[in-house]
Structures are given as structure tokens and as C-alpha cells.
Amino acid sequence: MRQNPNRGRVYRCCACRDSTGRLLGPRCPKLSKARHGGWAFAVDLPSLNKRSTMRRTGFATKAAASAAHSHVLECERAGVSLDDSETVASYLTCWLETKSPSLKTNTVNRYTAYIHNDRPHPRARRRALGAAHSRPRHPDHPA
Prior knowledge:
alpha+beta
């Protein structure tokens, strides 16, 4: 089944809470005011294991949120993984698996040691590195 290229949504949101501390969300009475809250988008991402939804908030305008939403969909169509929960160590391990057939054994061993010696901050999320470090999806690697 082919996915809808225009899936996802752009919406207004705020961080107001009720007296019990729960988010009001779309029930916030102040959202009718133009200066209250911000803009956000949500889009379902393909996954082999379970449903995965990417949500981003904090955009000042609807146009900015729409542009970010479009960027996520374009990256997905181009085959670029935007899994921002992926750690640096898991990214490097996957990268090394794809490169190892063309590398010398000694090089693979040194890279493996480098990855496992906590030098690249393996628990750091790749989202902190920015979009310049996005990578194409590997066919055997889950999205």
C-alpha cells in the first residue's frame, strides 16, 4: 500500500495547564487569541516494529511549521532517515556495517574500538548533531 505523501498535520498548541497540572491542549480558551501559543506538526513515520509519530512544537508561525513538516516528508521520500531517537553509537555501528566490506580488517577493528570506547558519546542523540548528519536509510536497518 502506498503512503499518502501529504499525511500529517499542522496545528496550534500551547503549554497551558489546568489546576491539576494537566495540559489543556486544544481545550485552552486562550488559543482563540492570535498571540497565544505556537504552531506544531505531527507526522506518522514508517516503522517495521510499531507506529512512530514525529511531533515538533515551538514554531512561531504556521508557515514555519508547514515548512518543517514538508521537509520531514521530503527527507522521507528521498530515503533519508530522520530517527532522532537514534544514538550516535548505533548510527556509527550501522555505518560501519555498511562500509566494512570495502575497508581493511585493521581499519574495521580500530573503528569498532573507537565506537565502543565511549569516545563519540554513544548515548547522545543524533538530533543534537543536526540535519547535516542525516543519513540515507540502510535497507536492512529498521527505520
